[in-house]
Amino acid sequence: MADTFSDSIDASAHAFNLILQGLTLIPIIHYEIAFVCFLIIFIYNFLEFHFFHDVLTLFRGSPVSLTYNSASEIYHGVASKCRLLHGRYMATPWLSSPHIQTTFLNFHGRPPAVNYRRKLFHASDGGTFALDWLKSSDVLGDSTCEESAALRHDKTPILIVIPGLTSDSSSAYIKHLAYSTAERGWDVVVCNHRGLGGISVTSDCFYNAGWTKDTRDVINDLHREYPNAPLFLVGTSIGANILVKYLGEDGEDVPIAGAVAICSPWDLLIGSKFICRRTVQKFYDRALTVGLQEYAQLHQTLYSRLADWDGIVKSRSIRDFDNYATRLVGKFESVDAYYRHCSSAQYVTKVAIPLLCISALDDPVCTWEAIPWDECRANKNIVLAVTRHGGHLAFFEGLTASSLWWVRAVNEFFGVLHCSPFMHTQKKNPPHIGPESSVDQGPYVNVSNGMVAAITKDPSSSTDNVKLNDQDPFERQKVNDESDAAVRVPDAKNVVSRSTGQTSVKVADLNSIKKWLEQLFQQNRRSTWMLTYIAVISTLPLMGATLYMLFRKKLKQPKSLK
């Protein structure tokens, strides 16, 4: 038995030696080729290249996916006429990776030469930031008079740009947008964030992902200075989040004719978890953190007084920086509270002007998981365009990567909108109470004290106009309580004064109940019939038992007579 075991061990060792001898016979060049192939496959998948897919599709690119409301006038009157939104996006072949595109944009980007004219804006809180202008005359070479009287009658469209995190007017993608727009005959003004563009922070206020005050003040000031010029708005990355939040907060009370949001993060809480999920995302997290630390270094005196400077220096992620700096300066209870408060997704349903949103599914910074698809579809003013590729704010196209696809899409959309009757004109609205959501297009049924009522304020409104507050449970309870009271108490306009007699009051009450029933049936017809059916089915056993008890003696009486 022992001999057999030793023989098997010797045979195994002999086989192993034979394998090693065979491997040594393979030329070293073959191992090098195998290693290179393995490395290429690893890098191809790690950096999410799609070159081979582009080759198989004959470099036709991927179609742009559009999400919109079927009754949207903005889509049918504007977006449907935009050739780029109904075409295909094909990335530059040698930049066929979202990470390569994003890196190339930040380190080179091939921006055109731009010479801005700088004006300083002084905020009411003492803050100062730069407005960098690029006039169409600077690009086209026309000399125009710029007297104040002439400016007030100037009807040249003005594009206002809100840059991304730690970006300013010197960023490559901002120069691409500014130059291309000015080349079309429009004026461009880049609203730099506080502390960027070489301007010191002169107050205790810093910008953050939800800071809409500066945007609002600049827009209102430009509207006063150029009352006849239509204003258009573009936000990129964090700037897009600020843009959507501003539009949602002010509703129709904005002097903006149309807007575009590029690569918005939408939900900052989801974005903060996404950017530290995978190894490749952690590189972006670290790179953006370094940029924020350099920004803080420029304003160390203020940050040392208002925030935790030691924590800022030790920060290794955006979340760390927001915990030690942003939330303290902005006076938020926690980082998650800051993210929830400043996320723009909750304001999408309140946008009341034409808005085009552009995102890429392979965006390595702002994940597609945060895109509010249903909210965008529910709002008739929004068109959401999503491409398969593009990276973060890149979207390079052509063999030389000399242009950005989204820049051309923005200019085309604004060009069609400017020539259409769908440009927004400012209307005064009541003060904004809070973000609401109308994604659930069905009526919200409230059950209280045995009453079943559809929540609504306008008797003529349909179920499509029912809106719920998904953000604040206390606000939702308040709406429910007010609706219960509205159901239980007849409308005061329909109630006749008691001095006219008890009969009039009863008639008014009957009319109110009749109107309430008609309203309930109109809004909730299917639900009402379903409840009636359930009520009938559920009471049949009780009715049968009652009838049996009543007629039991009569049924037994003939037997007793026998």
From TrEMBL:
InterPro entries: AB_hydrolase_1, AB_hydrolase_4_sf, AB_hydrolase_fold
All copies of domain AB hydrolase-1, residue ranges: 157-398
Entry's family note: Belongs to the AB hydrolase superfamily. AB hydrolase 4 family.
GO biological-process terms attached to the record: lipid metabolic process
Membrane-spanning residues: 28-47, 529-551
Highest taxon in the source lineage: Eukaryota
Pfam family, one: Abhydrolase_1
Keyword Membrane: yes
Keyword Membrane: yes
Name of the protein described by the UniProt record: AB hydrolase-1 domain-containing protein
Gene Ontology molecular-function annotations: monoacylglycerol lipase activity; short-chain carboxylesterase activity
Keywords: Membrane, Transmembrane, Transmembrane helix
